[in-house]
Amino acid sequence: MILIKKTPFPAIILTVLLIFSGFSGFSQRYLSDIDSSFFIKDTVRPIIKRFENLRITGYIQPQYQVAASEGAASYNGGNFSTYSKSRFMLRRARVKTDYILPSKMKYPVALFSFQIDATERGVVVRDMFLKLFDTKTNRFSMTAGLFARPFGYEVNLSSAFRETPERGRMSQILMPSERDLGVMVSHEPQDQKKKQSRFKFDLGLFNGQGLSGTTDFDSRKDLISRIFVRPDSKKKLELSGGLSLLAGGWRNGTKYVYETRKQGNGDPVFVVDSSAGNLGKTASRHYYGADIQVKLKHGWGETEWRSEYWFGKQPGTNSTTVNPGSLPAANGIPLPTYIRQFDGAFLLFLQNIINNRHQLMVKYDWYDPNTNVKQKQIGKAGTNFSVADVKYSTVGIGYSYYLNTQTRLIFYYDMVKNEITDLTGYKANLKDNIFTCRLHFRF
């Protein structure tokens, strides 16, 4: 007979409470950060020792939206269906499991992370990576698998903590799904008492297509790096910021490469280079970014300003600048490459009112996919410009009410404005404003 040692029922309850603990510190604010709660072990009973390095966190975002017109195109949860301008949807419902192996000095040795997103649209894996730490100096780490690209502030701010419902249009077009397959080395000192712990530096090599493709469609890789200065949380005025760089590209599927040039009369036009050597050559993709965050703590709570600016070169097709998941083609035939100079920005103001349960938000962002062409020049005969060259700007105004530390109700209105061009359908501002009411709960 095999005897099975029974675990006391109170111990089981305590185990469940520890694993599913709802303290706000048990969630990661930034996608690439480490959950510091892993190292708070002084009161853990020996009977649940096997669970102390495991954490399960997550959040859910049911919401209701109303658009200004039926079938509105949107970067606020995706396009509306043809005959609908209102919808209930489960924007995100994520569960994340982290297992960390600590050293005897309570510093991390290894971290395994796995996250899924399960909504009415299906179930997808969002994170799956292993992070190994330098145990001699506790200053370096290496990450491999599917994880967040180390570029920019908004891209790396977790949706569990982001105040606005969505990231900006530029983030979603240039960094779809925020994550990619690759490997990264980081300088991130684990001893928070040392001054250099405020400086984090990441350098990674990635496939480039993110979650929009099931496999890398060429041999080109994206080199992405970021240096970030964390804020000093002991002061009432906090300053932080970073610089980001992406250098990469993908394979030209044809010999036809278009770039914007000026004609003799000064008007911009897409000019084609049809040299045979262009076939298979890399279409360069270069991004440069800078961001800064300023936070002031006061009697009402906090006042915060965030700003971020990107510019660079983006390859695409005639109709889109979205990073592709496969070699751009139509009916199996590769499409010509269009190279554009772009820029864009995110500006956010946050203000607590009376206390930290009430928060006002004002956000402005823009994405100009082709800075060499403006307004009526788009759509002009013989120029080859299209909807992919139209600039968009968005003003978002919102209010959050925190029912408790884990639950908040969000009311947000996006006012979207497109460039007035000479293109059919874009000779006036589109009716694509969106109102969102969201209930957000995290654990």
What name does CATH use for the topology? Answer: Porin
Mean pLDDT: 89
What count of domains describes the coordinates? 1
Oligomer: single chain
Secondary structure topology:
Blueprint: H1 9-19, E1 54-67, E2 86-102, E3 108-119, E4 122-133, E5 140-148, H2 169-174, E6 179-187, E7 199-206, E8 222-229, E9 237-251, E10 257-262, E11 268-273, E12 282-298, E13 301-316, E14 329-330, E15 333-334, E16 337-353, E17 355-368, E18 392-402, E19 407-418, E20 434-442
Nutshell version of this structure?
The chain has two helices and 20 strands. With 443 residues, the protein is mainly beta. It has one domain (9-442): Porin (Beta Barrel), CATH 2.40.160.10.
Structure notes:
The protein is mostly beta strands. It has one domain: Porin, CATH 2.40.160. It is 4% helix and 49% strand. The chain contains two helices and 20 strands. The strands form two sheets. It has a 16-stranded antiparallel beta barrel with strand order 1-2-3-4-5-6-7-8-9-12-13-16-17-18-19-20. Strand 10 and strand 11 form a beta hairpin. The chain is globular and about 65 Å long. The two termini are 42 Å apart. The N terminus is likely disordered.
